[in-house]
Design brief:
Radius of gyration: 26 Å
Shape: elongated
Helix content: 55-70%
Number of helices: 19
Order of helices and strands: HHHHHHHHHHHHHHHHHHH
Strand content: under 5%
Number of strands: 0
Distance between the termini: 16 Å
Length: 369
């Protein structure tokens, strides 16, 4: 990815360290909000008294008895009977039972088979009572393309209701949706609005993505200072992408004093937490000797880690190093495999490289990684 100005450039050290092209900063792969397992409730008081209250129609007791039977707490386990009592409580309007049934059918537990449609029925009952977690779970279920209850328009509605009540997972999901144009129309301003709400609650992913918006000037005025501040906040919560981004800014002197040693430290923290961008940037630092002694073997090792996670620019650079025998013995066959993987992802330098090698293509000098 090539941008017309430094202010608009994507966060990636590769542009400064390699002639092979600029790899854009990658947002995390899209995932719907996490769905927690149902809470468990141990019975209070003598078992017989609990059963009598449940049989008299008390929904709270029906709920407690249902979970006690389902998990075998305080009485012999009987999942089938436990489910019957939970459903009675839910049909009597007991919110906790409705929400729990939704998650039980969504996840499936021993004695309760997963059933998306049944989950949607119970989650909607709880969501209609204003239960934010159920609204979020219902929204995620309806938005999932693999769900038999798939209904994206309704899913967005429920996700927004949950987000409006402060559900941070839903706010972050909406930020991603508007950022990428998933289900909803792409809208940077709306993406920033939802990321800001989640970031204000300390969500590190939202802080990082809001920082990227400030760095790029997308949906907000461009500001390196605000980007740095948000990345630092996310980094304190161990967000590896924020750490890698801080390394990029330190290496360039954006929003802070240029400091190659500090940049290297951030790249290493990100890389050691398994993040592909951090691994790629650390590999690039070793390749060029930025903040550390040049070491092709270390560069190769870090590029290989990132390439194994599908990081396209690292796949390309790994291929070039294998081809040239940098940090290892030359291996043209493995080099071609990695360059091909990068090309399959549409990474422009890799695509061009493959085209140059097509039969009849004019010869071109090999670019340095």
């Amino acid at each position: 990815m090539r941008m017309p100005s430094r202010a608009g450039a994507a966060l990636a050290l590769g542009a400064a360290l390699f002639a092979g092209g600029c790899s854009a900063i990658r947002t995390p792969s899209f995932e719907w909000p996490a769905l927690p397992l149902p809470w468990r409730a141990a019975p209070s008081g003598p078992t017989q008294a609990l059963r009598e209250k449940a049989e008299s129609g008390d929904p709270a007791s029906q709920y407690m008895l249902g979970f006690s039977l389902l998990y075998g707490e305080g009485m012999p386990r009987d999942a089938e009977a436990g489910l019957v009592w939970l459903k009675r409580a839910g049909e009597n309007g007991y919110l906790k039972a409705q929400a729990a049934l939704g998650l039980l059918f969504l996840k499936g537990v021993p004695g309760v088979s997963a059933d998306d449609r049944e989950a949607a029925v119970w989650l909607e009952k709880a969501a209609a009572q204003g239960h934010a977690a159920s609204q979020s779970s219902l929204g995620a279920l309806l938005l999932s393309q693999t769900s038999s209850a798939h209904d994206p328009e309704a899913g967005v509605v429920w996700l927004k209701r949950a987000a409006g009540q402060g559900d941070v997972a839903s706010q972050t999901a909406l930020g991603r949706m508007y950022q990428k144009g998933l289900v909803v129309a792409q809208n940077d301003t709306e993406s920033v609005r939802w990321y800001r709400k989640a970031a204000g609650q300390g969500n590190p992913e939202a802080q990082t993505q809001l920082g990227i918006a400030y760095y790029r000037g997308k949906g907000v005025p461009q500001s390196f200072d605000d980007a740095r501040r948000l990345f630092e906040a996310a980094a304190t919560r161990n967000d590896p992408l924020a750490m890698s981004n801080l390394g990029v800014m330190a290496s360039r002197g954006e929003g802070m004093k240029q400091d190659e040693g500090q940049a290297l430290g951030w790249f290493r923290k990100s890389a050691e937490r398994g993040h592909a961008d951090g691994q790629s940037n650390l590999g690039a630092a070793y390749y060029k000797g930025i903040g550390v002694a040049q070491d092709y073997a270390e560069a190769l090792a870090w590029f290989r880690k990132a390439a194994g996670q599908g990081h396209a620019s690292s796949q390309f650079r790994l291929g070039l190093m294998l081809e040239a025998g940098q940090g290892t013995a030359p291996d043209a066959d493995e080099a071609a495999v990695w360059i091909g993987k990068a090309a399959a992802q549409g990474f422009p330098p890799a695509v061009n490289r493959m085209r140059e090698r097509e039969p009849g293509a004019p010869a071109a000098p090999d670019p340095a990684p």
